[in-house]
Design a protein that fits this description.
This protein is α+β, with helices and mostly antiparallel strands and about 425 residues long. The protein contains 15 helices and 13 strands.
Length: about 425
């Protein structure tokens, strides 16, 4: 198996380069990390990528940018906002054809990188702030994006559970802020905040693909990306304590009740126990062979779906299900029972092996995607534990049954949130 290791260049760009010729495209990503501070700052951070994509000094509007991308052999540029632990991450991505597949010599990589730089660092400015109609239009679009969360009942339930669970922590802040906070933002303060990000935020540059050494060593000096700290998390508070379980319910026009149960694990990606937690998550609810799926959905027909997931920077595990509201108490007790039985080693050798194999197969699939390789490395970098997929696979393979038991024993149920129909 190709190790696909990132090489780190100790330079002002915090460059992380994974050299490989296995993909037909090359991927360039620029990241800015910002601590979660307030809903208003979160909304500003989420709004900035949208405005930057509208136009730059050289490419005045989005249509000109799209035309230039087409001229660059159909290159693809995108941006989005991520939440990892108690941080927001602005991600700017540019995917371009590997030049070795072109029929003639080209400066594609350099020209595409110049476009990405112009969009990020040279926005259209009028009177010392962003172009006013760009600001107003993108502010309205972000407002609608925030409001649209209510239409996605699964993520709406998860988000509300997390906000209740972490109500006294910065993690409660939604990655896009809030509509009320967004309304307070002026164009001038947004532009001032943008300048602060460009100059002060932690930043990293990812290169994944078959880049010429001249580009890596020389062309990068043309970027306006200034020196700064790599995107290591120093903000996330990992809360782990005994407490009474909080129960919440909310009524809304829904056909199916949604249940979300939030657990504290005390385990983050930095910890050796992380690999044990990965396998436990697969065993309990992270796959179709999981204990919860078989017991609650298949055997008892108490859920339309049931699954589990982990937030590895904050140390949280969530179990989510679609149920009939009158079955809430029974489902909650069954979840607790299945976790307790796992903590007592009540699972078969076959289930243990299948749980590990499920994770390893997923990781091996990620080796075939430049974006999946990037996402895996990003999380390891954020947690200051740079690690290749091959290394993660090796650590998962080492996990023993006793390790699963120890991970299960650490779980502490914190919050139960139910979204149910009105009346």
């Amino acid at each position: 198996m190709n190790d696909l290791e990132f090489k780190v260049y100790e330079n002002r760009f915090n460059t992380h380069h994974l050299a490989t010729d296995k993909f037909k495209t090359n991927l360039i990503q620029i990241y800015f990390m910002l601590p979660l501070v307030s809903e208003k700052e979160a909304a500003m951070n989420a709004l900035i990528p949208y405005i930057l994509e509208r136009g730059s000094q050289k490419y005045k509007d989005n249509q000109i940018i799209k035309t230039e991308l087409e001229n660059l052999y159909g290159s693809n540029m995108s941006s989005n906002i991520l939440k990892r632990g108690e941080n927001q991450i602005l991600r700017f991505s540019l995917e371009i054809v590997n030049e070795k597949f072109l029929t003639h010599k080209s400066n594609l990589t350099e020209n595409a990188f110049e476009l990405l730089n112009d969009v990020i660092f040279n926005p259209v400015v009028e009177a010392g702030k962003f172009k006013q109609n760009y600001f107003e239009q993108e502010k309205e679009i972000l407002k609608q994006d925030i409001l649209s969360l209510i239409n996605d009942k699964y993520n709406f339930t998860v988000e509300n559970c997390l906000q209740k669970m972490c109500r006294n922590e910065k993690y409660r802040i939604y990655k896009m802020g809030s509509v009320s906070a967004l309304a307070e933002i002026t164009n001038q303060e947004l532009y001032n905040h943008y300048q602060k990000i460009i100059n002060e935020a932690k930043r990293s540059l990812f290169l994944i693909g078959d880049f010429k050494s001249a580009f890596v060593e020389q062309t990068l000096t043309k970027t306006k990306l200034s020196a700064g700290t790599d995107i290591f998390d120093e903000n996330t508070e990992v809360v782990y304590r005994d407490k009474e379980v909080d129960f919440y319910d909310q009524q809304m026009k829904v056909n199916q009740a949604r249940l979300s149960m939030g657990f504290r694990t005390g385990i983050t990606r930095k910890d050796q126990d992380y690999y044990s937690l990965l396998v436990f998550n697969s065993l309990i609810g992270g796959s179709t062979h999981s204990k919860l799926f078989r017991e609650i959905r298949e055997k008892r027909s108490l859920a339309y779906y049931v699954s589990s997931s982990i937030e590895t920077t904050k140390g949280l595990l969530l179990i989510n299900s679609g149920i009939n509201a009158e079955n809430q108490a029974e489902v909650v007790e069954l979840v607790k029972k299945e976790i307790n039985s796992a903590a007592e080693g009540d699972f078969s050798q076959e289930d243990f092996i299948r749980s590990k194999k499920s994770i390893i197969n997923h990781l091996k699939q990620d080796l075939d995607s430049n974006r999946a390789l990037s996402a895996h490395y990003l999380l390891s970098l954020v947690n200051n534990k740079r690690e290749s997929i091959k290394k993660t696979i090796a650590e998962v393979e080492k996990v023993k049954i006793d390790d699963i038991i120890n991970a299960a024993e650490k779980l502490k149920l914190d919050t139960v949130y139910l979204l149910k129909s009105e009346g």
